[in-house]
Write a structure and sequence with these properties.
The protein is of the alpha/beta class and 305 residues long. Helices cover 32% and strands 28% of the residues. The strands form four sheets. The protein has a nine-stranded mixed beta sheet, sandwiched between helices. The chain has a four-stranded mixed beta sheet with strand order 5-2-10-11. It has a two-stranded antiparallel ribbon with strand order 3-4. It is globular. It binds adenosine-5'-triphosphate (ATP) and magnesium ion.
């Protein structure tokens, strides 16, 4: 099998619980012993691995997804979605742990708190993956912990030698706790938000005033930093490109915004678009996702090739 891109990340069932509870001082308060009515309840399939795989496949790229699900009804739902979306599942099924599950508590003001159960997601071993039976031009890594992260590192080293390119979207947990310096060195595109960029600079004792330049020195070729409705800026070691998200957009649910921007951007890179056009596609994907609930429903369908 020959893929344009293989994503490697989490697969979870997202349950969106929308209540009328308002935020107060950065907290969503639920009274002890209270019973709170849910105004709106929606389920969707999420997780960085599946979100980005669906985004790439809808853009016409030959896409594989490495993720791990439980041997349960939720796992079956995840696999059937991947199939329906033309994504080839090349991950594994856990006989013991359940599929990942997140509860997204949406407040009245549109903010949210996520409770997440990682389940099968953390246990992906290299030997389960039948590496060698497929090839890919690109790998896209979103954050996974424990054994799965170790496997990501081993696989990146192996495939890098064969010329596979790597896009990487680490989380704050990886940045603060794991050794990912080797991944940075072979990373073609690093995608982080502003806070994560600052954490990387601090972790490697680099200057924080220009995180693009600092992270470039750590080895990443191209660095894209997003910052909510402030400009998303990308640096290729020579030039900077920037795009301004629309202000006052009606944000319905922001889960998946980062995944959507990153996958639009990377898809553009895969087909060789100039950076400015990749930014425009990333922005279009993210704005489409945040103006509806669920991280995938509104991912764009168009062919880049
Ligand atoms: N309030 C907003 N208004 C307009 N666009 C937004 C807003 N929030 C996010 N976006 C869009 O989504 C992109 C990614 O958002 P952000 O910088 O918050 O990423 P993130 O923190 O990685 O998100 P995630 O929590 O999904 O990982 C932004 O660059 C922008 O295009
Ligand atoms: Mg993010």
């Amino acid at each position: 099998m020959d893929f344009d891109i293989v994503t490697f990340g989490s697969a979870v069932i997202d349950t969106f619980v929308h209540t009328d509870v308002a935020e107060r001082k950065n907290f969503i308060y639920y009274p002890v012993g209270g019973k709170i009515l849910i105004q709106d309840l929606t389920f969707s399939i999420g997780g960085g691995g599946t979100n980005t795989a669906v985004a790439f496949a809808r853009l016409g790229l030959k896409t594989g997804c490495i993720c791990k699900v439980g041997d349960d009804a939720n796992g079956k739902m995840i696999l059937s979605l991947l199939k329906d979306e033309n994504v080839r599942f090349i991950g594994s099924i856990d006989k013991e742990k359940m599929s990942g599950y997140s509860v997204i508590l949406d407040s009245k003001g549109g903010e949210r708190t996520i409770l997440t159960y990682k389940g099968a997601n953390n246990d992906i071993a290299l030997k389960e993956l039948k590496a060698g039976t497929w090839k890919t031009k690109w790998l896209y890594y979103s954050a996974l912990l424990e054994e799965s992260f170790e496997t990501q590192k081993k696989m990146a080293t192996l495939l890098h030698k064969q010329g596979t390119k790597l896009a990487f979207n680490p989380s704050s947990y990886i940045i603060n706790k794991e050794d990912f310096s080797g991944l940075l060195k072979i990373c073609d595109v690093l995608i982080v938000n502003k806070e994560e960029a600052a954490m990387i600079c601090k972790r490697f004792k680099k200057k924080t005033n220009d995180p693009w330049a600092s992270i470039h020195e750590l080895g990443a070729n191209e660095i894209l930093i997003t910052d909510k409705d402030n400009p998303a800026v990308c640096f290729d070691g020579v030039q900077r490109y920037s795009i301004q998200p629309h202000k006052n957009l009606k944000v319905v649910e922001r889960t998946g915004a980062g995944d959507a921007f990153a996958s639009g951007f990377v898809a553009g890179r895969i087909v060789g678009w100039p950076l400015a056009e990749c930014l425009a596609l990333g922005l279009k994907e993210s704005e489409s996702v945040i103006t509806s609930r669920g991280a995938k429903n509104k991912l764009l369908r168009m062919s880049l090739t």
